[in-house]
C-alpha cells in the first residue's frame, strides 16, 4: 500500500478499511504501508514496490480542489503514471485516491467507498 500523508488522518481511516476488507476476504496484505508526502510521490513509491517484487499496490490519498489548476494537472499526471506502471509491470494498482478536485465537504463521504473500491479492484485482478 502507498499512502499520501498530506491528509494523514483521513488516509489512515481509508487504510483501516482496506485492511479490514482484505482480512474479511482472507487475503494477506503487507502490514506496513509506504507513506509518501502526497499524491505526487505515489507513482515512484509504487514503482519501487513493483521493483521489489510486490504483486499489487493499493494507493490511497486525497487531491483537493485548489484555487488553481495545479491539483487537476497533478492528479492527471499521477493517474496516468499509475496506469503506465500497471501496463509496464503487468500488476494491478488499486486506485484509492480521491480527486483531483475534491471539495472538503465531499471528502468524508468518499473515504470508505474509494478505499473499498481500491482493494476490491486489486483482489479481483489478482484472481
General form: globular
Distance between the termini: 18 Å
Profile the largest sheet: 4 strands, parallel
Please write the CATH class name: Alpha Beta
Q: Give the overall average pLDDT.
A: 92
DSSP helix fraction: 55-70%
| Alpha-beta classification | alpha/beta
Following the backbone from N to C, one meets helices and strands in this order, namely EHEHEHEH
Count up the domains: 1
Contiguous helical run count:
4
Number of strands: 4
CATH superfamily: Lumazine/riboflavin synthase
The largest sheet has its strands arranged as 2-1-3-4
Radius of gyration: 14 Å
| Beta fraction | 15-25%
- The CATH architecture is 3-Layer(aba) Sandwich
Low-pLDDT parts are none
| CATH topology heading | Rossmann fold
Give me the secondary-structure topology.
Elements: E1 2-4, H1 8-24, E2 34-36, H2 42-51, E3 57-64, H3 70-89, E4 93-102, H4 104-126
Mind explaining what this structure looks like?
There is one protein chain. The chain has 127 residues and is α/β, with parallel strands linked by helices. The protein has one domain: 3-Layer(aba) Sandwich (Rossmann fold), CATH 3.40.50. Helix content is 55%, strand content 19%. It has four helices and four strands. Strands 2-1-3-4 form a four-stranded parallel beta sheet, with helices on both faces. Helix 1 (8-24) links the parallel strand 1 and strand 2. Helix 1 (8-24) runs parallel beside helix 4 and helix 2 packs parallel to helix 3 (70-89). The longest helix has 23 residues, at 104-126. The two termini are 18 Å apart. The mean pLDDT is 92.
